[in-house]
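Tokens as discussed.
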């Protein structure tokens, strides 16, 4: 692959409620799969009001997020040092490996978040409360 172009509307919409091993029950567009990305995971996540991706951390993956639509309440930071930040359309945020992060849609009409993760490894979420400062600063 040298390059690929795709319109986001042409990326199939997947209802995660139909995928047992993949909580939460949100809709996504797996842009990375459509583009055959080798070095970055790229998803568009769609939320109804109140839906969320719970506070979690990854061992290896850095994640970068961008609010496409709506307003979100973010929970960010190390265990015991979490901060809550409101993010509107046009807001970016990033979470380094081992740093807790989660977000909940607080807009009446729902919202959408573009998420990038690198490296694109199978790195399931961990409980940030189980990660010590020594492990983070390692």
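Sequence:
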């Amino acid at each position: 692959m040298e390059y690929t172009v795709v319109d986001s509307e042409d990326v199939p919409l997947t209802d995660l409620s139909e995928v047992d091993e993949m909580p939460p029950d949100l809709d996504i567009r797996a842009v990375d799969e459509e583009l055959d990305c080798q070095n970055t995971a790229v998803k568009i996540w769609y939320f109804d009001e109140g839906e969320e991706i719970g506070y979690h951390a990854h061992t290896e993956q850095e994640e970068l997020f961008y609010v496409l639509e709506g307003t979100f309440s973010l929970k960010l930071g190390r265990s015991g040092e979490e901060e809550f930040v409101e993010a509107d359309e046009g807001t970016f945020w990033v979470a380094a490996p081992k740093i807790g992060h989660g977000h909940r849609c607080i807009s009446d009409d729902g919202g959408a978040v573009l998420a990038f993760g690198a490296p694109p490894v199978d790195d399931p979420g961990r409980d940030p409360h189980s990660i010590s400062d020594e492990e983070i600063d390692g």
